[in-house]
UniProtKB/TrEMBL annotation:
SUPFAM superfamilies: PLP-dependent transferases
Aminotransferase class I/classII large domain ranges (all copies): 24-368
Family to which this protein belongs: Belongs to the class-I pyridoxal-phosphate-dependent aminotransferase family.
Protein name stated in the entry: GntR family transcriptional regulator
An individual GO BP term: alpha-amino acid metabolic process
Length: 378
């Protein structure tokens, strides 16, 4: 399906690929050449399993934007935040352990949980993110069975796939519930700096140093460099570094040093602003196309940042079964079922507006509208 959906005539609203067209490639190639020339002996060598110290300091500066006050010694650089997810799950979960996650949740995290045979219990969301009452209910129901979840995995800001953001009041409530019941929190925040209003939400980690925070340069710089990180409490750090070492020996020195130079020598914040402006235009194109072309009884969120619109289709439509017909009509999306561990999501789908141009997005949504009309006519 991926191969078919990648054909040029298909408008893919399926993937979450960042749009890197605006990156300053000339300046970056000069940086790459200079890195090899001046620091090649270090950049092309093995390095520390925890990551390049200068970069870990800069990562703390980046996190400061979200109100986080961190020590570079508690940052572990990983091969994308995906690797951090894998390592954290490996450290905490034995087969059969329960983890809490929003419903829907990030497909890559669900993949890591499944790989270590953890059982996911989903907690519902609304337009303001995770619903604290539902979290409390889930925790109490599990407690009645003698189960304490290993952690809550949450994407509080510009959620993937739901597109929503947890309000400040709820941030406090969620932390309070988890503290009361002794449940760890993993905050996954690759989109936090990609808000359309320019507002930056304080991270959960900014309120509670016990939170494990996962970050990434994939969306703010270059996903292909595979540089992400975990900020962990000191008690977890050594285990995480050991796990990272056994997985990869060390993250790529060259890529880390390139990211470090980029942060040091380029106006990366205005680059993020440029990215975000492009994403806002694309979001607008998608929202107006949805209004124009989708049948009645479809519902979707209005994302205030990030990459995604989460769409609920009319009763009777199965988004997984519909996908081959959509691809035949030259539009692709991600069916909602991939974002649940428990088989839900067949009336939902995720649309990504990050990669195609506004014109292609409009055309893709027009095609999707036609496919939905045809499903409803059957
Ligand atoms: N978490 C979330 C919520 C994501 O959307 C993604 C990428 N799609 C990742 C983690 C992984 O990002 P990376 O490994 O590129 O840092």
């Amino acid at each position: 399906m991926f191969a078919v959906a990648s054909r040029p005539e298909v408008v893919s609203l399926a993937g979450g690929m960042p749009n890197l067209a605006a990156l300053p490639l000339e300046a970056l190639s000069a940086e790459v050449a200079d890195l090899v020339r001046r620091e090649g002996q270090v950049a092309l060598q093995y390095g520390s399993a925890q990551g390049v110290p200068a970069l870990r300091e800069q990562i703390c500066e980046v996190m400061r934007l979200e109100g986080i006050n961190a020590d570079p010694g508690d940052v572990v650089v990983t091969v994308g935040s995906q690797m951090a997810l894998d390592l954290v799950t490996r450290i905490f979960c034995d087969p059969g352990d329960v983890v809490l996650a929003e419903g829907p949740s990030y497909v890559g995290a669900l993949g890591s949980f499944a790989a270590y045979q953890a059982r996911v219990v989903h907690v519902g969301m609304d337009e303001h993110g995770l619903v604290p009452e539902l979290l409390r209910d889930a925790v109490r129901t599990l407690a009645a069975q003698g189960i304490t979840p290993k952690f809550l995995y949450t994407i509080p800001t510009f959620h993937n796939p739901a597109g929503v953001t947890l309000t400040l009041e709820r941030r406090a409530e969620v932390l309070e519930i988890c503290a009361r019941y002794g449940i760890g929190v993993i905050e996954d925040n690759p989109y936090g700096l990609l808000g359309f209003s320019g507002r930056i939400y304080p991270a959960l980690r900014s309120f509670d140093p016990g939170v494990i925070y996962l970050g990434s340069f994939s969306k703010t710089f270059a996903s292909g460099l595979r540089v992400g990180w975990a900020l962990v409490p000191p008690a977890v750090r050594d285990r995480l570094v050991l796990a990272a070492e056994s997985a990869t020996l060390c993250p790529p020195s060259f890529n880390q040093m390139l990211v470090s130079r980029y942060l040091e020598g380029h106006d990366w914040r205005s680059q993020v602003k440029t990215f975000t402006e492009a994403y806002r235009d694309r979001r607008d194109a998608m929202l107006s196309a949805l209004e124009t072309y989708l049948p009645d009884d479809c519902r979707w969120n209005v994302p205030d940042g990030g990459f995604y619109v989460w769409l609920t289709v009319p009763e009777g439509v199965d988004t997984k079964a519909m996908l081959p017909r959509a691809v035949t009509a030259r539009v692709a999306y991600a069916s909602g079922t991939g974002f649940y561990a428990d088989g839900l999501g067949s009336r939902q789908l995720r649309l990504s507006y990050c990669y195609p141009t506004p014109e292609r997005i409009t055309e893709g949504v027009r095609r999707l509208g036609g496919v939905l009309e045809a499903e409803l006519d059957v």
